[in-house]
Structure prediction request, 259 residues.
Amino acid sequence: MTEQDSIKRKVQEQFGKHAQKYVTSSTHSKGSDLALLPEWLQLQPESIVLDIATGGGHVVKALAPHAASVFAADLTYQMLKTARRHLDPSYSNIHYVVADAESLPFLENTFDAVTCRIAPHHFPHPDKFVKEAARVLKPGGKFLLIDNIAPADKELDEFVNRLEKLRDESHMRSYSVKEWSTWFEQAGLTLVKAESRKKTFNYPEWVERTTTSEEQIKKVDKHLLSASKSILDYFSIEISEDMIQSLTIDEWMALTVKK
Prediction:
């Protein structure tokens, strides 16, 4: 098994075990960005849309009323089954496909829009993912990305990526805006609109969603509790009686168009 295969197997195991949590997670199901998706994409009634790494299916749920067909793709079979249980029978125009984000099983120029939300930090080769998204888009089609991002400051970048890895072994890296912008350009995608935001997590829910033991949670706790004041301030880490209550990370929403 190659290193890449091992990484993707770990992702499948992680999301397979916690599939239902991603359907009910407040982070994934209630984000304010979900309401912005139809507004930013401006889909037509005949539009065909692909959502990559669909997870609990929250993006396809938001877009299905605005499109002719929406394809929910995910690397993890169990995740798709859980998403379908969550969405059926209300949405008859959603189709479910097991697919690797870095090697999509679709022909060139197939989709009017492609989306991916809160998932690429699990991808080992995000540049390949962006090229694949561009490949399956029609000319003039739109690619909308939403994900956690790393701050430009190296110390903050290393801290947050270490935090995510301690909490979730399938985490690869939260990438920077600069990195994403480079990959868009290389894939022939033009950035037309972007918005940065701060996203606050209820810490107990957030840490329990992906950890598998009390020992693992204690390692995450220790990483946060030992942070410098500048890091505590940047991530708005709220601590009460040595218990972590919440933290805030950076998220980026970016809309691009295929040249």
Summary: The mean pLDDT is 91.
